[in-house]
Every structure is written in C-alpha cells, then in structure tokens.
From TrEMBL:
Domain called DUF1508: residue spans: 10-57
A Pfam entry, by short name: DUF1508
Alphabetical list of Gene3D superfamilies matching this protein: YegP-like
Signal peptide: none
Protein name as it appears in the record: YegP family protein
Lineage of producing organism: Bacteria, Bacillati, Actinomycetota, Actinomycetes, Micrococcales
Domain of life from the UniProt record: Bacteria
C-alpha cells in the first residue's frame, strides 16, 4: 500500500493534513490552515520539497540552544480525527 495524505478539519475548524505510511502510521502532520485550498497547497509543497530536503541530525545540545526549546508540540496535533 502507498502513502496517503489525509485532509480533515480539526476541532477549531482549521483544515489540516497528515501523511500516513503504507502501514497506516502517521509520519507527518501539517499546520492548521484557514481554507481547504491552503491545506491543499501545503500538501503540494510537501510533495515538491520533500525529495530534495536536507537531513539534519538534532542533538540534545542543538535542541537546547534553539529558540523556543522545551515548548509544547504544535496545537491541534492531538485533536485530529483518527
């Protein structure tokens, strides 16, 4: 089975997407968008840019020095319908 983008509305009414691997595991999530077309553009951006994206290894020291380190995850990640 191939990977699938799922488009949905969260509890606050924003459009979001998630990328599921062939085994059904969520491997990426998108930010909240005010419009369906904005979320679809976000999906297209991921499809276009992922193949050429750099891989950067994050270490504990790197994370601690970043602005916002220790902040909570993106809002809305846990309120997506399953």
């Amino acid at each position: 089975m191939t990977a699938t983008f799922e488009l949905y509305r969260d509890k606050t009414g924003e459009y979001r997407f998630r990328l599921k691997a062939g085994n059904g595991q969520i491997i990426a999530t998108g930010q909240g968008y005010a419009s369906r077309s904005g979320a679809l553009q976000g999906i297209e951006s991921v499809k276009k840019n992922a193949a050429s994206a750099d891989v950067v290894e994050i270490t504990v020291a790197t994370v601690a020095s970043r602005p916002g380190a220790g902040s909570s995850p993106d809002p809305g990640e846990d309120d997506a319908p399953q």
